[in-house]
Amino acid sequence: MKTKLYLTICVTLATHCCIYAQFNKGGLSSSYFGQTNSNGLQTNWIRSVGVGNFSNTGDKTHAFLHVNSNYLLLPQNGSITTLGEVFRTTGPSTDTNTWRLFTGAGNGTEKFSLFVPENSNHVTLQVTQAGADMRFNTGGANERLRITADGQVKVNSLQCENCFVITDKDGTLKTYNAKELLSRIENLQQQITAIQQQLNTLALNK
To answer: 142 - beta bridge partners?
Structure first.
């Protein structure tokens, strides 16, 4: 009786409480894939996956995929990775190898992609939605630079109407008001003209 009760409890826990994965072994080897258990019970869906040793640090998996790279080990058959190398993508050179992001408004449609075109060494960042900008933030949610959908580049620290943008010797971008520069140029031209007139007068008096 105790054995039967024990088995019943184990089966119940296994079918309702466990979170596990399954590996599809059907079809050709190229169609193998890993996935969350597909019996329809959300209690059996994988909540997150942690790779590495989290037991001694108190750190816990807080994302769908959390890798603690300090505990990655090099393969025994030779060093094909370096300690701390977390992710690598390798694909045929004849294919366009792409990372894609689907989220935000209209969830399920592609918003962003990072890819290397086929037979190319160039890396492309691409916003795929019409009318969408590419924004660059630092210090949290502070936007610093934006590439608009129509191709304009806007830098927040350089907000200045009708300005010239130049690069300082240390690479810093600086702005100068175009109207102010034109005014200074006109003043210099007037001063040069006045000096030339004075020189001409002196030459005549000799």
So the answer is: 138
